[in-house]
Amino acid sequence: MTTQISHQPYFLWDYALSEEQVREILRGTNETEKIWMMSRILESAKFEDVWEYLTLREVRAYFPKLKLKPAIRDVWAFALEAWGEIR
Q1: Does the N terminus or the C terminus of the chain have fewer Cβ atoms within 10 A?
Q2: Where are the domains of the chain?
Q3: Stated pTM of the model
Q4: Using 50, 70 and 90 to split pLDDT, how confident is the model at 2?
Q5: What are phi and psi for residue 20, nearest 5 degrees?
């Protein structure tokens, strides 16, 4: 029997979740889990990695509900506002 090692995303250093579990949460219907995961990604993932998991449309849609540290919320709010003008 071969044991497959599942990759744990670096931004979840304190949770034993695999890459696939992260994607399942983001695709799932549990809004509380989705908000938590999106918040964690926006706070802890490298900017270029954010887009491996989320779309700009999703970030815009969920932004008011996300639980972000104030300084990080301000940066993302500024970015979303700036990107909104570039359509």
Answers
A1: N
A2: 18-84
A3: 0.86
A4: very low
A5: -65, -40
